[in-house]
TrEMBL record:
Counteracts the endogenous Pycsar antiviral defense system. Phosphodiesterase that enables metal-dependent hydrolysis of host cyclic nucleotide Pycsar defense signals such as cCMP and cUMP. InterPro entries: Metallo-B-lactamas (IPR001279), RibonucZ/Hydroxyglut_hydro (IPR036866), WalJ/YycJ-like (IPR052533). Gene3D superfamilies: Ribonuclease Z/Hydroxyacylglutathione hydrolase-like (3.60.15.10). Residues 14-219 form the Metallo-beta-lactamase domain. It catalyses: 3',5'-cyclic CMP + H2O = CMP + H(+); 3',5'-cyclic UMP + H2O = UMP + H(+). It holds the Pfam family Lactamase_B_2. This is Phosphoribosyl 1,2-cyclic phosphodiesterase.
């Protein structure tokens, strides 16, 4: 039994792309790097674009759609996005064949062969941003980044996951002290911005159940975060709220802006 496996090809404000697959379906979530770079990253995980069955879009920010049109054209792939996101990406995505423009409503559940996908709305400064859950049998993987805050709706959508890819964008202090203009800082810190390490820790204190084996910390700011700091802060935020775990039961895992994570099987303990 194969179940769900995945690799985060790249994560961060310089570009996001993740590949999720099971025995009969391979999907990419976002294509926020150049098509050439995405090809290179896939090659590093012994994956070819020919194996992809489609691309799911979370929202229209360029770090999520930079190579979307080019990758879709190169491999003749359907693109899945909700109506408002389609409106927002229409110009930048270039020419896409009619049959490859697929509307997938927010909250819709869609079966791609034996891989079930469900989208859920998130709070972020985009037209209609979403995250995605993937199901195969009793396995569940959820991808949730670009979150202004962890709403009850998102928490509900991603609860019961075996593996999570969750945003830990910035260290609040590093961001406050940093060189960004005040408006940008306010945007990032706001309810339509990005999830801080602290907020990710708080969320994790509620999300950690026996089902959850790993959380990949994702979309880290290169200017205002570091992986070690993010992990430490998330764990501290969990422990502050009485949520303790053994390293043998649960792990916080790295993602990278410049290389893919190893293939990970959701069923692995
Ligand atoms: Zn982003
Ligand atoms: Zn965004």
């Amino acid at each position: 039994m194969m179940g769900i496996s995945f690799t985060v090809l790249s994560s961060g404000s310089t570009g996001n792309a993740t590949v999720v697959r099971n025995k009969d379906t391979t999907l990419m979530i976002d294509a926020g790097l150049s098509a050439k770079r995405i090809d290179e990253l896939m090659e590093q995980r012994e994956l070819s674009g020919e194996e992809l069955d489609g691309i799911l879009v979370t929202h229209e920010h360029s770090d999520h759609i930079k190579g979307l049109g080019a990758v879709a054209r190169k491999y003749d792939l359907p693109i899945y996005a909700n109506e408002k996101t389609w409106e927002a990406i229409n110009k930048s995505v270039g020419k896409i064949a009619e049959e490859n423009r697929v509307v997938m409503d927010s909250g819709e559940v869609r079966d791609f062969g034996s891989l079930r996908v469900e989208s859920f709305q998130i709070s972020h400064d985009a037209a209609e941003p979403v995250g995605y859950c993937f199901y195969d049998g009793d396995e569940k993987l959820s991808v949730a980044t670009d979150l202004g805050y962890m709403s009850d709706k998102v928490k509900q959508a991603i609860s019961g996951s075996n593996v999570l890819v969750l945003e830990a964008n910035h260290d609040i202090e590093m961001l406050r002290m940093g060189r960004y203009p005040w408006n940008t800082k306010r945007r990032i810190l706001g309810d339509l911005g990005h999830l801080s390490n602290d907020a990710a820790g708080e969320a994790m204190s509620e999300l950690l159940t026996g089902d959850l084996k790993r959380t990949y910390l994702a979309h880290l700011s290169r200017d205002h975060n570091q992986m070690d700091l993010a992990k430490m802060t998330v764990r501290a935020g969990m422990e502050d709220r009485g949520c303790f775990y053994k390293d043998s039961e649960f792990k916080l895992c790295d993602t990278y802006y410049d290389r893919p994570t190893p293939w990970d099987k959701v069923s692995e303990p």
